[in-house]
User: Fold these one by one.
Assistant:
Number 1:
Amino acid sequence: MANGYHIVVCGSIVPDPLQTLEPVQTPTGPALKNEMMLPAVLDPWAAHALYEAGDLASKVAGSKIWLVSVGPKAKLQQVMMTIAQRVSFELVPVDASASGFADAHATAALLAETIQGIPGLDRSRLLVFGGWESASRGAGATLQLVGERLEILDQFQGVDQLSMQADGSVSYTHLDVYKRQQMMREAVSLMGGYGITEDCPGFLGNKWMDAQLEATYEGPEAVQRRQLSITMTNPLFLAQFKAWVAEMRGIASERPGTGACTLATAMGMWLWTLDRLQHSKDADGGRLYQSARQGVTFPLADALCWLLAARCQILDALELERRGPSDPAVAEGLAGLVNFMTDLCHVQSARASGEVSRICAELVFGYNRHPAWDEAGYRGCYQQDELDSLEGIIPGIGSYGLDVIALDGSHPRKAGPCAKCNGAEQFLALQTKLATCLTGCRLSKDRAAEAISKLMIPEALDYPA
């Protein structure tokens, strides 16, 4: 385009995702505890959009950027002083609530009205950017509503990167996961997060930051767990998950110290438990795995998260080993760093596997009613006279009788006869296998602890100015 683009970026401020965010109920509706006192940052989704706008404007002469931001004016000014040092734009502040509980329609109407009132804005050259979702809400609808109010028919949702074509048009692309993380890192830098990303050599630090952001802008935990509990029964996901199990087995054969073997066994236990719960009922005949029974689906989703997080950590450590030699920040002393990260992977895999084993055991056995000392319970116990008569035929059988009813009707002092594991023999075999797979994990923890004790911190830290 000969005269450049007029780019309007819609973005609000949100509480710093590294802070503890506690929802509360107020007279005016839901809010965050001490929200006005929490430090604010530019919404990560909007930061990504602003980064893309700045990149596009730098390539097309005559382009101009406006940032339309909704929020308390005092906080807007404080945050924008930092952002303006990195991207050139004209701020159009809208003094209103930036709460994540605000209605999407009302917010869209306010944004559209503000954009229409920008002096000198050429609608024929207009491009509207913004976060597809937000760190304070997961509706994913606000920007679409803004476009409809501005009568913008060409909308591209969930875009990762824009580029200009020879005819002046703009194309969009969806990047792969690694590129998406690079873009998110740039967005984090717009929020002033250099200390988090640049101080973590390799790739694990970036993933940690992304995880903190995901925990904030993906919505309440209950929503995330419900979405996951629905998705994880999809045949496509289960096929992918089985491929991940095989992947961990392959890594374990080549890099046994990563804990991948332990993790693969725990992943197999999770698969068995999911299948069992989908075809089982509780003691009262109720279906176990169903959307309304979140006491079953949510813990199993949590167990899945333990597994996938540990898997990603292992893959990151291998990526560090593969790409580290070409990165001057970690090339020196890479062998020691890789060994340290490998030990951490082993420790975390063991921790995750233990949690998965506990959760799965509770779900497999926890919905069975424990036998009691009643008529039904007695039927599964040996009578003392029975054992005495069998002793002459099978010597020593008396020592195998766990629950024996004496001649006077007395029984061992406990809650009831031992519960049976009918149908769960394979689960118990997996538990036993997993227990032995934990071999060596404490040695890895000791090595990691020793490595930390010898860590040297330079006197002059190389933080960016």
Number 2:
Amino acid sequence: MPCLVPALAAIWVTAVPVPTELGTLGGQSSNAVSLSASGAVAGSSETAAGATHAFLWTDRDGMRDLGTLGGADSHATAVSSSGAVVGDVDLSTDASHAFLWTAADGMRDLGTLGGPRSMANAVNSAGLVVGTSLLSVGGPTEAFLWTRDRGMIDLGSLGGIGRPSVPRSVAVAVSDSGVVVGRALNAREVTHAFVWTEAGGMVDLGTVGGTYSEAVAVSARGHVVGNSWYSLTVSATHAFLWTATGGMLDLGTLPGGTNSVATAVNPDGVVVGSSSTATSAHHAFEWTPSRGMIDLGTLGGSESVAVAVNAAGTVVGHSHIAGDVALHAFSWSAETGMIDLGPVDARSGEAVAVNDAGQIAGNLYAPAIAPAVTVTRAARWGDAQASPAPGSGSSPTPGSGSSPTPGSGSSPAPPSGCSSSGGDAAGSVALGAIALALLRCKRAARGT
């Protein structure tokens, strides 16, 4: 039956997730920021009244409005594996406080360290919350850890005094075992990455050669990743990996590059982020102890950024497509290379998180409807559609600069306004700079 040979050769077997729009709370836009182990998505959405409210989206309940504590707005920053959501919420007075939301208790005010404002940045599976809080009106901010038994605990600093524009310390992540990481001022008023534990308190992780460092993520096994100036004379950053046994390791850059930025780490110590290349373009990278830093390539455009990696080594992020006319979300693995997740219509997209089940959370950006206005919709990729099998001639290899695009038709047109991914979807802003801008935007949102 010779007709079966070409038919079998044309079978598409690689599953490509399809984005499902999660809707809004009655307003125009919604924005996903975090994803739980069970596929619940947390973020913020415009309401019909024009306010912004935190939401939790689940397969069973759809998008749920988490409300406020008397004020107008609330914003989600993270969701735990058990579905607890944290962020910040306006009060009826001129103040905003960190909150913890659970299905059992609703929204809980976590208070402050004495000032009018606090913000939660992360929550672990045990319900431990970390973030930053003002110590007084007009005073500096310090990192906190909140527990149900003890409330909000001041984690202190590395000896620095700080001032309103330069916080003493900021906690950005917490592992399931309670290891907290972030950045803090030392006695010389210089910002260094730190790790905090109940037993050891706050420990300065140092730098890879320069004066500045920051921790951005911690794995379930205590791997800490972040970024550090690598020279006393050059204020460019290198990604680093820190472990209790090995200390701080400079991960370097892609060949010919001058700077790199780490964004995430998995339990095996696999690090992802972005690095400049010999052409000055920034490409997504994966770093492993055995292979070092490898270039994940792009979706045919000039630049890409990796933002998350799961336990299996699946990497997600966003990349310019051919012609740099738009950004598309991507997933990457050693088996499949970089896969274009779309969107397939005239929009841009980004992935922000991936769980161990392979579900992906992100956002789709519609063309602007007014100057400097972009309609954003939270999305989750989870259902599968067909894609050419690896080796069929259409799948990319890392660094090849090409990838299959789901669907057909012309490339998406760029939005005319700015997207909340921090860059211009038409490609006028380097994605490596977008990665740094994302970190800076998060700092600004945390009052830092």
Number 3:
Amino acid sequence: MDNPRLMVFAAHTDDAQYGAGATIVRYAKNGSEVMIVNMTDSETGGAPSREIRRQRMLEAGAEAAETLGAKCHFMHYGGDTLDNCLIKQLQVARVIREFRPDIIITHWLKDMHHDHVSTALLTHYGVDFAIKENPKEGIWNLDWHENAVVLKQELEELKKFPPLPTPRIYAMEEYTTLQTLDFPAAAYLSFTAEEFESKIESLMIFNRIAFNDTGKEEDEVFKIVRTPEGRIVDAQDGLVGPAIHLGRIRGYIVGSYYAEAFAESRFLGFLGGIKAKDSL
């Protein structure tokens, strides 16, 4: 496939950039259409108020996606406790059918963050509904459901777009506490310094727009270390520094300077999305 369509489902507006930023740059540069879908507006934590935080994260997320060469879509789900429910599964399925990706990247199902796990589940169940000829068959006793009216409306919306072939699904690696200790990396992409620098630039957008209330320059606040040419090689923050270190660790494993690692999803096999073949 010359230019596979890539879709990245992220719980928060900075997750796709951290877990798959350089991969997004690579695919976009090679001519693929890339869509980042943010489940929440990342409105919790930091900033003078919840609404200010929300607006800053939405602005940063949109600008960061553009920096990577991707389109950006917001589902606008609440960010305190993102839940995996049928209504959201059908809404995710509709977004998938509309974009028609060949490859999907999302969070790891065993991630330590609740919103990340919910996003992974919503993505996988969304794919299962998106590939079905009759999605209604995936809902047991629809008429008995307490949200039957809303579910039927979502099913009608889903029917506006035809089903698609099962996309390949991968899990991205995040900086959540302890995740990398058990992350089953199965696929690696290595990158040039320029490709990885675009990822770091997209993450710095969040430091500039959303995470710096001091009035000082970002380089001072986050103790950014740059080469004489201006390339960022380290930082003491919760985003750029960890991304650089993880990129170097994964790069060392595959013999390059920077890399990103992904786990292959097997979850769809339990949903009927994987079919038996006569031969490999």
Number 4:
Amino acid sequence: MYSDETHIDGISQMQHHEDLFGNLTKRTFVDTDFDIVSVAITYDSKYAVCITAHDKFDKESKETVSKFKVVAVNLDTYKEYFTWEQSGKYIKMNQIEQNANGSVIGLAYQDMGKYYVTILDMEKEGEEIQTLNVSDLLKLGDDSKGIHGFWEPMITISFMPNNKIFIGVYHRMEMQQYHFIYEINQSTEDLQFYMKEIENCTTLNFPVKSFYSEVTKDIYVFYRQGQCITVNSENPENYKIENITSADLGNMYLVYDQALVVRSSSSILFFKIDENTGLWTKYH
């Protein structure tokens, strides 16, 4: 029995055409050894790349060991394409970044306050192209460890044209962002590093994600406590910081390289750059 409030016109007619609607989605179960932290589909739609994690207490050393596996699954066969593994004492990793055609992926992570970036070749079964010890490059200590309960590693990367990557590191005790632009497989001797202090925040702040915009040629680094650092990709010494909201920021997407859609608690917020001021403005 249906009331007027629950009745939906057309449902009864659709029941006669169940065969048209019964197979619109395809479900396949793929087992992973560890719990899934995040998943990304490569831009060529060939693979699902999963970050999985597991903490295990080692009885001999009496220490907890963090184990991460990055697993790529073929979306045609649903079979494992490759696995990349990393073990440490206290690893944080949550984002899979990729170049414009999905042929190369980048992983930014930290272990006990030490920052790293690993680049993998998707066309060669995840062959490791390079791993950068970012902490050594910046001469940073290891006192900016990850926050318990969050997977964010305090380091973000964004792929740019011409085989370049933006790397941004946040030292939460100093409340400083360090950033630089690196060309894959090139020398690190002549790298230029830049630093920006983030004021009026706490030690629980961290960068959520960074984006490169093909439209503006800028890189945007968004922080948990509402800050955004904008870096000019062609002149990375030119950068600015602004507070775009007082709300805490979570998962986010840059739509059409110009509009930010972000989750904040139980709400979805929308931001765009004001044409007159050049600043991010909430519009919904």
